[in-house]
Specification:
Helix 11 runs antiparallel to helix 15 and helix 14 packs antiparallel against helix 15. The two termini are 31 Å apart. The chain has a single domain, classed as Growth Hormone, Chain: A (Up-down Bundle), CATH 1.20.1250. By secondary structure, it is mostly helical. The protein is globular. The longest helix is centred in the N-terminal third of the chain and has 33 residues. 83% of the residues lie in helices and 0% in strands. The chain has 18 helices and no strands. This is FSR family fosmidomycin resistance protein-like MFS transporter. GO terms for molecular function: transmembrane transporter activity. Keywords: Membrane, Transmembrane, Transmembrane helix, Transport.
């Protein structure tokens, strides 16, 4: 594997394997609720357990990546991510389930900062959005396949069918570990030849990054609110089958994957801030409209728009975060790429409690209201010319 561009696709495949587990969890929840009689809040508590550990340690993994590149850590993370989720079907004790999903969350946290930093290093300066889009596409495909694989496996083998999730984890663990030395060398060589050492002399822009973090975290809550309750919403509000609910979850993730692939490329051409703002302006009315219809066909069409809008901003936010913190790519990636998911998981139990007490429709209304916050803050993000010098600005536009 000599072409550096190939490493982006390898890391994208690793991202697919990692996020496969995150996509599988919400699809597994309805089966756990039925088998173990968990409440919505308890089910959301599993989402919290999977993400609380990730939120705590992911910035630490990002700082480790900034100090020294450790590609082998991605392989270990992939293995832990798949192992933790694979054993959930063998456990009935809630505490044991929490520990299992926390192990999975730890592995996911170990993978993201190192991988995103590596993608940045092997991408051309003017095509970083495209590079992150390819990488993010893999993650979104993983999210889309997670519900399909877990549902088919559970329906075929019972809850113990979750063991199937270990297979892609092992395969990608071996593939990444085999290329770990080459990945490290490729990142170092490409950084030297592309002039990225000059970028590292720039000052980190902490205030713009703080604003971006608010947007990232707001999107995370909205994403996980929809991610966690979408299948249940289709079953309990729109009165569809569990299979149909998980199918809609996969459609949601699939649309998101396609949107992510376009998001970075559009941002490279038109600007990161413009794409982020456009995405949120499209997202806001769509969520409200979803809560107003009981027609399954109309709801499906609206869901397509939501999936597109919610993920269009994903890659631009990751690259913009790396631009704001050029000396801390790992930390920036850990926040914008990793915490962009896990922070929403922390809020999920609150939404789950709301759903228990007031219904899923009320929870979706709150998710729609929360989306207003990142939409407003997105307008406050500095323009490229206010943050970067003329050389960088020319490469971004």
């Amino acid at each position: 594997m000599k072409k550096k561009s190939n490493y982006t696709y390898l890391l994208s495949a690793g991202h697919l394997s990692s996020d496969l587990n995150q996509g599988a969890l919400p699809a597994i929840l309805p089966f756990l609720i039925t088998s173990h009689h968990f409440s919505y809040a308890a089910a959301a508590g599993l989402v919290l357990a999977a993400n609380i550990i990730s939120s705590i340690v992911q910035p630490l993994f990002g700082q480790l990546a900034d100090k020294k590149s450790r590609p082998w850590l991605m392989a270990v993370g992939l293995l832990l991510g798949g192992l933790g989720m694979a054993v959930t079907g063998y456990l009935s004790n809630f505490t044991a389930l929490c520990i299992a999903v926390m192990i999975s969350g730890l592995g996911i946290a170990a993978f993201h900062p190192e991988a995103a930093q590596m993608v940045n290093k092997v991408s051309d300066e003017s095509k970083k959005g495209a590079g992150i889009s390819i990488f993010s596409f893999g993650g979104n495909v993983g999210f889309a396949l997670g519900p399909i694989i877990s549902t088919v496996s559970i329906m075929s083998f019972g809850l113990k069918g979750t063991a199937v999730l270990l297979i892609p984890a092992v395969i990608m663990c071996i593939a990444i570990f085999a290329q770990s030395r080459n990945l490290k060398e490729a990142g170092t060589i490409h950084a030297m030849t592309s002039g990225q050492s000059a970028v590292s002399k720039q000052k980190d822009q902490w205030f713009p990054f703080s604003l971006l973090s608010i947007v990232v975290f707001g999107r995370s809550v909205v994403f996980y609110g929809i991610n966690t309750f979408l299948s249940l919403y289709w079953v309990n509000v729109l009165l569809q089958t569990k299979s149909m609910g998980n199918t809609m979850l996969s459609i949601f993730f699939a649309i998101g994957a396609i949107s992510t692939l376009f998001g970075g490329r559009l941002a490279d051409k038109y600007g990161y801030k413009k794409i982020i703002i456009f995405a949120f302006l499209l997202l806001l009315p769509s969520i409200f409209l979803l809560t107003m219809t009981s027609n399954v066909v109309v709801a499906t069409l609206i869901l397509v728009v939501i999936g597109f809008a919610l993920n269009l901003s994903y890659s631009p936010m990751v690259v913009l975060g790396q631009k704001y913190l050029p000396n801390r790519l790992g930390l920036a990636s850990g926040v914008t790429l990793g915490l962009s998911v896990s922070v929403g998981g922390i809020v999920a139990p609150v939404l789950g409690n709301l759903a228990d007490n007031h219904g899923l429709l009320a929870a979706m209304h709150v998710v729609a209201l929360i989306a207003v916050i990142p939409a407003i803050v997105a307008f406050m993000l500095p323009k490229s010319k206010e943050t970067f010098n003329k050389t960088q600005e020319h490469s971004l536009n």
